[in-house]
Design a protein that fits this description.
Layout: E1 2-3, E2 9-10, H1 15-18, H2 21-49, H3 53-70, E3 78-80, H4 85-95, H5 98-117, H6 129-152, H7 173-180, H8 186-201, H9 213-228, H10 249-253, H11 267-294, H12 303-320, E4 325-327, H13 329-337, H14 344-358, H15 361-364, H16 369-383, H17 386-393, H18 397-412, H19 415-436, E5 439-446, E6 449-456, E7 459-460, H20 465-473, E8 480-484, E9 490-491, H21 493-505, E10 512-516, H22 527-532
Helix pairs in contact: 2-3, 2-4, 2-13, 2-14, 2-16, 3-12, 3-14, 4-11, 5-11, 5-12, 6-7, 6-11, 6-16, 6-18, 6-19, 8-9, 8-16, 9-16, 11-12, 11-13, 13-16, 18-19, 20-21
Organism: Mucilaginibacter segetis
Membrane topology: Multi-pass membrane protein
Main location: membrane
Length: 535
């Protein structure tokens, strides 16, 4: 699938490729992994948001099936987002009812579709690469730190929390880790250690690798948990998955809720909707950019189409009683790491969530969180491996510093704030690089004195204004200066003004100025001109 300049998918939908055996043998196992990762996250985020547990699962189902089908991304996975928990919790409380909140979610979905139609997704093209890679590494570190307590026993903080400051009694991520040592359950430790060993060594045996390691981890975890029951290593209910159970069809359909359209005139409904749309869209675009970076095939996802897909998902979620969703980097990373090839993996994971709720909730509730923690620990390690740090270091400090700052900021704040801080640092280094390269400075011998030739670059933007101003004002008295615009396709009007002012006032410093091929005005070159009419 190709991408046009507007960021929409072109070339039509080739359904056959999604059902090719070579793709399905990758997508089906990876969908199981994503399902196992998504299950506790859907429940944990719903619990933290003050929404019904069913709403979290419903959002994961819609994110997998609906958004997966509409999305142009082959590897991203949508579901309830940890970054929206505070917004959702405050909205449910402030708007007075869950049904009023659902109306805001429905409107937020409409806003997202509009953002996609007006091509707002192109903002993703301006995220600096070191910031995105720093975000990925930070998510890996957060996964390791947040899952450690679950691996050794218990953590009251909700599954999927990415923030450093926690809502539980442990206050922050570090104190949560320290507290976990006082809650060690040796049954959970044994399960997590065996699970880690399976995750590491099972895939290395090719004949055995036909059975996905995460599926084996869950089976072994359930068996061990049953063996430990009644002993001193027995797991408690809070150390297991806790999916809602439904006994019949009418009870299942009774879990759905509808938005309250009677409060549509309340301005708080619209403010909440706009907030959800903006935050959800930013988190989606960040996740999409990150997933494209770790895609082994290096496909480019259409960002505007993704906003439309997410908006459609949020509209349906609002109509049925769900929660806001975004493309989620943890699930998407697990999808990539498990070898997924197409969007069918995300769609299958949505169906698995639905079937688990309808058919086997009792069996799902036998899964220990320590087993799932082992899977997420491996996902975290793959995102934050040492080789990534080495690779960014060799690219230079202008790449490494924004990368490290983003990691630190995300780990000690939350995803959006941390990326925002990383963006500021990344843009600083970008501006610094641009300001250093607007021209070539050359001293040419000319008889008994030297002529200074300043050859302007192909593109001289507003960002280069300060550097050129400093260079011109620092030229020695009595110089002869040639400002050469022969190679320039575009010179910003502010830079032209600086050059003209310098020429007019140069006599005060006995400087002689010659301008070569510098026009009075430059039009901004179109993309087509740059591609097909090189100077």
């Amino acid at each position: 699938m190709q991408k046009d300049q507007g960021g929409t998918a072109t070339g039509g939908l080739n359904l056959k490729k999604y059902f090719l055996p070579k793709n399905l043998k990758k997508d089906i196992p990876s969908s199981i992994v994503v399902f196992l990762v998504a299950l506790p996250l859907c429940l944990g985020i719903a619990l933290a948001s003050g929404a019904p547990l069913f709403a979290g699962l419903l959002t994961g189902i819609i994110g997998g099936i609906v958004v997966g089908a509409f999305s142009g991304s082959q590897l991203s996975v949508a579901g309830p987002a940890a970054g929206l928990t505070v917004i959702v919790l405050n909205a449910i409380t402030g708007l007075g009812s869950y049904e009023a909140f659902l109306l805001s979610l429905l409107i937020a979905g409409i806003f997202q579709i509009i953002l996609g139609l007006v091509k707002a997704g192109t903002i993703a093209n301006y995220f600096p690469s070191p910031v995105i890679e720093g975000m990925l590494a930070a998510i890996g570190i957060i996964l390791i730190m947040k899952q450690f307590p679950h691996a050794v026993g218990y953590d009251a903080d909700f599954e999927g929390d990415e923030g450093f400051l926690q809502t539980d009694a442990d206050n922050n991520t570090f104190s949560g880790i320290i507290s976990a040592f006082s809650k060690i359950n040796y049954g959970a430790v044994i399960i997590s250690v065996i699970s880690l060993a399976i995750m590491i060594y099972w895939p290395r045996v090719k004949k055995l690798a036909i059975i996905p390691a995460p599926l084996l981890v869950v089976v072994v975890g359930v068996i061990l948990a049953l063996l430990f029951s009644g002993s001193g290593m027995a797991l408690q209910a809070k150390q297991m998955v806790q999916i809602p159970t439904v006994s019949n069809t009418s009870e299942f359909f009774g879990l759905f809720k509808s938005p309250d359209f009677s409060v549509i005139g309340n301005k708080e409904i619209w403010i909440t909707a706009f907030t959800i749309a903006v935050v959800a869209s930013l988190e989606t675009l960040l996740s999409l950019e990150a997933v494209d970076k770790i895609d082994p095939i290096k496909r480019v996802s259409p960002t505007n189409r993704e906003l439309i897909a997410q908006g459609t998902g949020n509209m349906i979620s609002g109509l049925l009683g769900g929660m806001p969703m975004t493309a989620v980097i943890v699930r998407s990373s697990a999808n990539v790491g498990s070898g997924a090839r197409t969007k069918m993996s995300a769609i299958f994971h949505g169906f698995l969530l639905l079937l688990s709720l309808l058919l086997i909730p009792g069996l799902i509730n036998l899964i220990p969180l320590s087993s799932l923690a082992a899977i997420l620990l491996i996902v975290g390690y793959k995102l934050a491996r040492i080789s990534l740090f080495k690779r960014i270091w060799h690219k230079g400090l202008n790449q490494f510093i924004p990368f490290v700052v983003t990691i630190i900021a995300v780990v000690f704040t939350d995803l959006l704030m941390g990326v925002g801080i990383g963006m500021v640092v990344g843009i600083f280094y970008l501006l610094r690089t641009n300001m250093r390269n607007p021209y070539f400075y050359q001293i040419v011998p000319n008889g008994d004195k030297n002529t200074i030739r300043i050859k302007l670059a192909e593109e001289v933007s507003f960002l280069n204004k300060a550097a050129i101003q400093v260079t011109l004002t620092s030229l020695p008295e009595g110089s002869e200066v040639i400002i050469d615009g022969t190679n320039s396709r575009y010179i910003d009007p502010d830079v032209l003004e600086i050059i003209e002012n310098f020429k007019q006032n140069a006599y005060t410093k006995h400087i002689v100025v010659h301008l070569e091929d510098i026009k009075e005005r430059y039009d901004v070159p179109s993309l087509k001109t740059l591609m097909y009419n090189p100077k």
